[in-house]
Automatic annotation (TrEMBL):
The keyword Transmembrane helix applies. Pfam families: Motile_Sperm (PF00635). InterPro entries: Ig-like_fold, MOSPD1/3, MSP_dom, PapD-like_sf. Residues 17-105 form the MSP domain. The keyword Transmembrane helix applies. Plays a role in differentiation and/or proliferation of mesenchymal stem cells. Proposed to be involved in epithelial-to-mesenchymal transition (EMT). However, another study suggests that it is not required for EMT or stem cell self-renewal and acts during later stages of differentiation. This is Motile sperm domain-containing protein 1. Keywords: Endoplasmic reticulum, Golgi apparatus, Membrane, Transmembrane, Transmembrane helix. One of its GO terms (cellular component) is endoplasmic reticulum membrane. It comes from Taeniopygia guttata (Zebra finch). The chain crosses the membrane at residues 158-177, 189-209.
Length: 211
């Protein structure tokens, strides 16, 4: 006996919905944009029924707001200046042909703009402004780097010179054990201390020569 293949249970609200385009832009001065086509794709093995909802349904006319899967025509029927820049939303709900619950949904943004040419000009101006800003930023970074290089190549620091003088003075002091000296006894240095001073003086000399 052949076992019938059981279709997996579909969870409400989790079915992916494929719609093109995902955003609708209308231009007030271009009537050809007042009517746009919204297409719903059905890649599944079962039939889909749909329902189109909207946040402002009085502003739009939707051909076949419910029914089977086919291209959907949405017409903007209330072109007013007060609606310029206002973002509306369409929600497209889909469900299996034999069920009433919505298995998936997709939201599409709709915006009315005053002019396509004006929008293009604003886009070009924005791109130009960004390019100018980037050019100024690169030039500004280069001018900041130059003073730092000059400071680094101006010579050894005062601390380096001071340590060098201290090491030279330490080497000139008498060694511990010398009796015939006018220098106080607490300023007499041991051989190890003078070796350390000589080593540090050598390092300082290398630093000065590199700068």
């Amino acid at each position: 006996m052949q076992q019938q293949k059981r279709q997996p249970e579909l969870v409400e609200g989790n079915l992916p919905v494929f719609v093109f385009p995902t955003e609708l832009i209308f231009y007030a001065d271009d009537q050809s944009t007042h009517k746009q086509v919204l297409t719903l794709y059905n890649p599944y093995e079962f039939a889909l029924k749909f329902k189109v909802l909207c946040t402002t349904p009085n502003k739009y006319a939707v051909v076949d707001a419910t029914g089977a899967v086919k291209p959907h025509v949405i017409r903007h029927r209330d072109v007013r200046a007060s609606y310029y820049g206002v973002i509306d939303k369409f929600r497209l709900q889909v469900s299996e042909q034999s069920q009433r619950k919505a298995l998936g949904k997709k939201e599409i943004i709709a915006t009315l703009l005053p002019s396509a040419k004006e929008q293009q000009q604003q886009k070009e101006e924005e791109e130009k402004r960004i390019k100018e800003h980037l050019a100024e930023s690169v030039f500004f970074e280069q001018t900041l780097c130059q003073p730092e290089n000059r400071t680094a190549s101006s010579g050894p620091s005062l601390l380096t010179v001071f340590l060098g003088v201290v090491c030279v003075a330490a080497l000139m002091l008498p060694t511990l054990g010398e009796m015939e000296s006018l220098v106080p006894l607490y300023l007499h240095l041991s051989v190890n201390q003078k070796l350390v001073a000589a080593y540090v003086l050598g390092l300082i000399t290398m630093v000065i020569l590199r700068t």
